[in-house]
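User: I'm writing a short report section on ligand binding and want a predicted complex to refer to. Could you take this sequence and zinc ion and write out the structure as tokens? A short remark afterwards would be nice.
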Amino acid sequence: MKFIFLWLALINYELTAQPLSKPEQDVMATVKKQLPQTQAFLEEVVNINSGTLNLDGVRQVGKLMAAEFDKLGFKTEWVSLPDSLNRAGHLVATRQGTQGKKLFLIGHLDTVFEKSLPMDPFKRTTDSMAMGQGVIDDKGGDVVMLAALKALHTQKLLDNTSITVYLTGDEETGGTPGNPEGRRDFIERAKRCDIALGFETGLGKSLIVTAKRGATFWTLDVKARSGHSSKIFAEMGYGAVYEAVRIVNEFRRALGQEKNLTLNPGLFVGGALQYDDKSAEARVVGKGNIVAGSALVQGNLRFLTNVQKESAKARMREIVEKSLPLTKASISFTDLMPAMEPTAANEDLRKQLENVNLTLGLGPLVAVDPSIRGASDISYVAPYLSGLDGLGAPGKGEHSIEETVYTKELPQVIQRAALFIYRLTR
Ligand SMILES: [Zn+2]
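Assistant: Sure. The structure tokens for the complex follow:
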């Protein structure tokens, strides 16, 4: 009986999968044929250090990428940023047409590996794995995107499509707090498109990202009367440390169990203090016989929807306001990254990509738990258009010296990206 059910389930999958048309078959074959060039190009770009602060390295990778997109008939531009930001800038490649959906494809040129770190060149470790800096995050992703577009171009199937490729030069700096300029052009161009596809590190053929949590930074400042410790709880009030402890503990009690929400105090100091924003260092002087006059707590807040974020902020403000006697606290928030919310439109895209998966015999496609992925560039544009992320190169160990790409799965994800782009742009 079980067998029959299983068999029926398999048939069902085959029935819902749209078969490959003749032009699609040609694209799939082209991806395979171009694979040696694709792998050689990945090796070439991985071997150029492009840590976010190595501006020359980021631009050099950008130049190589631009030359490739030029060959595919894209118009390429370099978006410079003000010198004060100390960022290399971004590469944009566009083509305009009138058919199908307008796509916004996202990758990044930089890596977490700054020039000061020891660099091992690209290395094949087994017949199905290779290691190198950015080999999946995100040079692998950029190359998956490029190879998919190249196969489509070879088959003349990019004609009359509208595609914007945006490869940022500073994705790894962890958001742009107080620096909206760094993503202004990125957001403006995305708004003119219909669908965003992020080529961040892939999770293999069976998993995709339809939602990501956003992040907000918060600072709690507490002031209190300071003086002889014998008078605490009485004429000296409660001091800044008790008040900060009360607030942080109340945060945990009120919000600690909420689904998809996390709230982490990362720095907590109290006494007589000075704080240096630039180095994130606090200088504290304090003694057991002095009531602490000030306390500072900094942390972050992660949330799945912007409604959840606002309601958490409101609860936090309420808690902060209930000051203990002779203490005064204030909290401020800096939004780092909006949430990529789990919308119906994103779910619809997942279904479309699952259909592509089934066509290619790659099996079902599941949305990953949003709490396990960090924020990335797609989050900035998620409030404006539907999208998916994690279409990039599959592997493991990103942000570590073990960063590895699964080379045997590379052709599969390139074919999948090519077929998805093809179908969306008809
Ligand atoms: Zn990345």
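A remark for your report: Residues 1-9 have pLDDT under 50 and may be disordered. The chain has two domains: 10-212+340-424, 214-337.
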